[in-house]
Amino acid sequence: MKAADGQASACVTDATDEQSVVDLFDAVEAAGGHIACVIYNVGNNTPGRIHDMTASYFEQSWRTICLGGFLFGRETVRRMRAAGQRSSVPRTLIFTGASASLRGRAGYGAFNAAKGGLGNLAAALAKEHASDGIHISHVVIDGGIDGDKMDQAMPDGTKKAACEQLIDLKGIAASYWFLHQQDRRAWTFELDLRTWQEQWQWAALARRYEPPPQRLFNSHRRIHERGWRRHHVMWIKNRRARAVALLDGETCAINRLSSYAHSR
Predict the structure, then answer these.
(1) Burial of 8 (C-beta count, 10 Å sphere; 0-12/13-18/19+)
(2) pLDDT tens digits, residue range 158-187?
(3) Going by C-beta distance under 8 Å and a sequence separation of 6 or more, which residues neighbour residue 220?
(4) CA distances from 125 to 14, 195, 255 (A)
(5) Which of 130, 158, 250, 257 has the highest local Cβ count within 10 Å?
(6) Region label for 42, one of left (φ > 0), alpha (ψ between -120 and 50) or beta (otherwise)
(7) Are strands 35-40 and 2-3 parallel, antiparallel or unpaired?
(8) What is the 3-class SS of 35-55, one letter each residue?
(9) Which pLDDT tens digit goes with each residue over 42-64?
């Protein structure tokens, strides 16, 4: 979190415990000013096939990512709305997502469900509180991050070789700052960050929308053109019929009005 005086504030809390979240926000506000920027970056990459998964395992993934995001998001907008327009400092809430926010993947059902729920929650909050002047964004991080966890997980030689495939931490921070500084007439809701070597892990989804083979495409085009011409002819016929009916109706109305005038 960042307080309105520009000082960063943070402390450890249980993201899924409501009172802990409230206490965290109280502590930040007590440190100085109202809250200007909140980033929900809690995650837990929980692999596992659904048919082998326990309900508690699935629930814990959802609680950490989605329920925690709800508690932080709700508390953020409550505090920011209460602060009103007392400061010209932008007010921003950013949720960190992943490629799992955009599609389901075999072996990651719990993680996909939790991240997908978080993305939809972010969209709902953004629509509900844009009129309050609160900029809410969802950032899709598609790939490994060049940070402490990767340093611990990979030997030096391996990490150095894979460096170009890891997302730069400073680049992520710069993107988040960019979102925080945006003019409210040009807000970004969803930002997608990846390295130049990323293989677009969710691109399989796009295969549904690839163009069909040319032979099949030409056949579909001919059918479409014939259907369009038939529809156009029927549209003209219907339009003429309506025009004739309207004219007949007006003629009858005029005749009735004329008869009524003569009878008077």
Answers:
(1) exposed
(2) 656 567 778 888 999 999 999 999 998 999
(3) 212
(4) 22, 29, 62
(5) 130
(6) beta
(7) antiparallel
(8) EEEEEECCCCCCCECHHHCCH
(9) 877 889 999 999 999 999 999 99
